[in-house]
Amino acid sequence: MDLDALASCFASPACLVTQTTSGLIIGMLLFLVAVGLTLIFGVLKVVNFSHGAFYMFGAYFAMTAYQLTGSFALAMLCGAVGTAILGLIFERAFMSRVYGADVLMQLLVCYAFVLIFDDVVRMIWGPEFKSMGMPAAFQVPPLFIAGGVVPPYYLLLIGVALAAAVVLGLGLARTKIGKVIRAAAHNPGMVSALGINTGLIYGGVFALGGLLAGLAGALAAPVRSLTPGMGFSVLIESFIVTVIGGMGSILGALIGALLIGLIRSFGSLGFPLYTEGLMYLFMVIVLVARPTGLFGKEAA
Amino acid sequence: MTELQAGEGAQVLKVPRIDARAQRYRDVLIALVAFIVLALLPMVFGSKQLLDFVVRCAAYGLFATSLNLLVGYTGMISFGHGMFFGLGAYGFGLMMQKTGVPIPVAFAATLAITFLVAAVIGAICVRLKEIYFAFVTLAFQMLIHSTILSWQSLTGGDQGLRGGIPRPPFLGIDLSRPMHLYIASCALLVIGLLLMRQIAQSPFGYTLRMIRDNPTRASFIGIDVWRAKLVIFVLAALFASTGGMIMALFVSGAYPEFAYWTISGEGIFINMLGGVTTFLGPMVGTALLLLLNDTVTRLTEYHGIVLGIVILFFAIGLRKGLMDFIVEWFVQRREGANG
């Protein structure tokens, strides 16, 4: 424990800025993964235990695309769209078979794919750590805000994630497709009776979740190292985020992700060995106080 | 789960015709025979591999069967049951390394610690529903895992408990000799299974089944659902902890992997593999998974793919465990024969 370091950080604006931005990028990446998870749960009532694998594939797709084309924008696109297609196939071919079955079966199918996907990545890209490297466009001197160091790439990352959050929030609230998705979450039988193809919606929601997780992976690729199994720690953290924020709530996912990001970044100063433990502790506290999470609906 | 779905899955409970006491004698008899067979096994097949396999089966089997008390009998899908496995291994290992008390004392003390921890964690978790229960137990599992990793001065961090666990002889039993460890593990396994069987067949066991099938109705007829769930959560934790202690004795150490979530995942998978509707299903699943793991890791480095495909076969293809499948097949055949 190193509370002095934490206290002195709060006293210095430079340290505060640095830690807050690093907390924000952790939070934003987590948000992109967690919002897909929460959306899939909200509409399909399925907990996609293999969502971390989508994040992993997003990162690997982006790396390969970047190495082939050298274009950062194309890399992002490949990461996101490639993973969306993967999500669609996964849902139509496998998950759709266990919707009626109990939670155990769904968890098992996902568990099987966590094992399979990790090995597939190991086969294609090898077991060692990979790195995509920072794109040339962002190899510029960092910005200094109040004395704190902020790499420009961080700003882009936060911006893209925020834009995704706004588009998603508005899309669900305002557009026709958004309304259909919300209706399907509420009463799939009725939506189906009104002549809407619910299978298409389910596949679409899974693809959307895959797209967001893939985007998160692609955005993370330049700043994190890539390894098979990288999805799992992200998955556990996004579970914590969704549970804290409340399953099915997008605003909850955003707030939960930012809280966890900040806890991680400031916690690593004050409790360097127990950062992970802090998150679990926080989740336990929230759940004891509010079993359905901060923004969850009461007793569904 | 809606009322309608609950109604579909529920079966009419058959009141056991056989006198409960007769059934208990039968169980004890089966247990005795099983123990004698296991104890005589080394005389027929002396291979060290087989003995090690049985000891591992005992450790994981106790763990998996206790998980089935939660998953199969009560309908509580715990994704953190492995924490008690890890707690047993670490509690016992530390007790032996730091205090040097006799093994039975360390055994009892570890059970006492598990009891306390499980009571506190259970009190928080068991009021949560299905998926939330699964996650919060998972979170506690990870909390314990990260505590083990970060408390290096006590637990050795990611290196685990090293230097071996001292195993001083007691009452003429010397657990540092493989043969004694083998017999002791078999005894613990058989006693553990017998006790769990008694729990499952007791009136309390039938209360648990009712809670699984319809908790609302159970609470309407005056059952304290929260308390019943807490009791079985703690009991299951004690058996899982015993499994962990066997494992610690076997490897003469304890490693953070024992408390990692994958242990819980494997436990769920074992239950699935063997089947949750029969009492011995998890034991069959344990033997299958260990065999599968051993063969697959020997044949290929990509054992995740193979295991994954096997899981998919059971989850999507068979939709039930092996023992469920066999039992149903028998029942159908018998009914077919009777006309």
Automatic annotation (TrEMBL), chain A:
<feature type="transmembrane region" description="Helical">
    <location>
        <begin position="194"/>
        <end position="219"/>
    </location>
</feature>
<feature type="transmembrane region" description="Helical">
    <location>
        <begin position="24"/>
        <end position="44"/>
    </location>
</feature>
<dbReference type="GO" id="GO:0022857">
    <property type="term" value="F:transmembrane transporter activity"/>
</dbReference>
<keyword id="KW-0029">Amino-acid transport</keyword>
<keyword id="KW-1003">Cell membrane</keyword>
<protein>
    <submittedName>
        <fullName>ABC transporter permease</fullName>
    </submittedName>
</protein>
<feature type="transmembrane region" description="Helical">
    <location>
        <begin position="239"/>
        <end position="262"/>
    </location>
</feature>
<dbReference type="InterPro" id="IPR052157">
    <property type="entry name" value="BCAA_transport_permease"/>
</dbReference>
<keyword id="KW-0472">Membrane</keyword>
<feature type="transmembrane region" description="Helical">
    <location>
        <begin position="103"/>
        <end position="125"/>
    </location>
</feature>
<dbReference type="GO" id="GO:0005886">
    <property type="term" value="C:plasma membrane"/>
</dbReference>
<comment type="similarity">
    <text>Belongs to the binding-protein-dependent transport system permease family. LivHM subfamily.</text>
</comment>
<keyword id="KW-0812">Transmembrane</keyword>
<feature type="transmembrane region" description="Helical">
    <location>
        <begin position="153"/>
        <end position="173"/>
    </location>
</feature>
<feature type="transmembrane region" description="Helical">
    <location>
        <begin position="269"/>
        <end position="289"/>
    </location>
</feature>
<dbReference type="InterPro" id="IPR001851">
    <property type="entry name" value="ABC_transp_permease"/>
</dbReference>
<keyword id="KW-0813">Transport</keyword>
<dbReference type="GO" id="GO:0006865">
    <property type="term" value="P:amino acid transport"/>
</dbReference>
<feature type="transmembrane region" description="Helical">
    <location>
        <begin position="72"/>
        <end position="91"/>
    </location>
</feature>
<dbReference type="Pfam" id="PF02653">
    <property type="entry name" value="BPD_transp_2"/>
</dbReference>
<keyword id="KW-1133">Transmembrane helix</keyword>
From TrEMBL, chain B:
<feature type="transmembrane region" description="Helical">
    <location>
        <begin position="230"/>
        <end position="255"/>
    </location>
</feature>
<feature type="transmembrane region" description="Helical">
    <location>
        <begin position="179"/>
        <end position="200"/>
    </location>
</feature>
<feature type="transmembrane region" description="Helical">
    <location>
        <begin position="304"/>
        <end position="322"/>
    </location>
</feature>
<keyword id="KW-0472">Membrane</keyword>
<keyword id="KW-1133">Transmembrane helix</keyword>
<keyword id="KW-1003">Cell membrane</keyword>
<dbReference type="InterPro" id="IPR043428">
    <property type="entry name" value="LivM-like"/>
</dbReference>
<dbReference type="InterPro" id="IPR001851">
    <property type="entry name" value="ABC_transp_permease"/>
</dbReference>
<feature type="transmembrane region" description="Helical">
    <location>
        <begin position="131"/>
        <end position="151"/>
    </location>
</feature>
<feature type="transmembrane region" description="Helical">
    <location>
        <begin position="267"/>
        <end position="292"/>
    </location>
</feature>
<protein>
    <submittedName>
        <fullName>ABC transporter permease</fullName>
    </submittedName>
</protein>
<keyword id="KW-0812">Transmembrane</keyword>
<dbReference type="Pfam" id="PF02653">
    <property type="entry name" value="BPD_transp_2"/>
</dbReference>
<dbReference type="GO" id="GO:0015658">
    <property type="term" value="F:branched-chain amino acid transmembrane transporter activity"/>
</dbReference>
<dbReference type="GO" id="GO:0005886">
    <property type="term" value="C:plasma membrane"/>
</dbReference>
<feature type="transmembrane region" description="Helical">
    <location>
        <begin position="53"/>
        <end position="71"/>
    </location>
</feature>
<feature type="transmembrane region" description="Helical">
    <location>
        <begin position="28"/>
        <end position="47"/>
    </location>
</feature>
<feature type="transmembrane region" description="Helical">
    <location>
        <begin position="103"/>
        <end position="124"/>
    </location>
</feature>
